[in-house]
Amino acid sequence: MQEAKRMQAFSAAIFNQMEQHKNQLLKKGIKVIDLSVGSPDRPPAPHIIEALHRSIDNLLNYRYPLEGLPRLYQAVAQKYQERFRVSLDPDKEILVLMGTQDGLAHISLAYLNPGEIVLVPDPGYPIYAGSVFLAGGEIYPLPLLPQNNFLPDFAGIPEKIARQAKIMWLNYPNNPLAAVAEREFFQQATAFARRYNILVCHDAAYAELAYD
User: Fold this and answer.
1) Helix or strand (DSSP H, E) at 140
2) Do residues 127 and 108 make contact, with C-beta atoms less than 8 angstroms apart?
3) What is the Cβ-side half-sphere exposure of residue 104, based on CA atoms within 13 angstroms?
4) How far apart are CA 181 and CA 11, in angstroms?
5) In a shared domain, residues 79 and 113
6) 76 plus 123 within the same structural domain
7) Which of 155, 142, 130, 166 is nearest to 11 (CA)?
């Protein structure tokens, strides 16, 4: 069976390649410090494990959820208000997913039409580009260079590209560059997106990582 042409844009995932390389080294008896995938290597806190144990005995947790738990949506809204001073409507502005990969992959399918342009940081998390390919869109790379503190240069985006762009991906603190962005940068990004009516998708996976 011939695969769809869109699949020609994909190759083996970098994480799979790194895992295979690690396993080859381990077979040779070489000690490896694995910094490839951000999977936790420590157990959750005891009170979380206890809560999970209690939830096993709750038969309501075995139902097929259609909308999720209202108190979860309310807790997320409260978290955003306390942490970011952002007011969200729990009923309309919060979506609970199976995982971040799920949301990152599907947001392009929800908003992108074939041929539309997405501004993607380079380098960037692979799913940003992958989701664009799946939706039939086109990528315009935003180079993250040291001379610009690893931030995209909005002034360097051609006017024609900016007017055609539908989505712009951002990711700070950044993976894989570990760069951070100040409030001024986000103000510039917001102004740029409003000027050209671009949907900003900020993958804030590392927002809680900071050093005093």
Assistant:
1) strand 138-143
2) no
3) 18
4) 31
5) no
6) no
7) 130
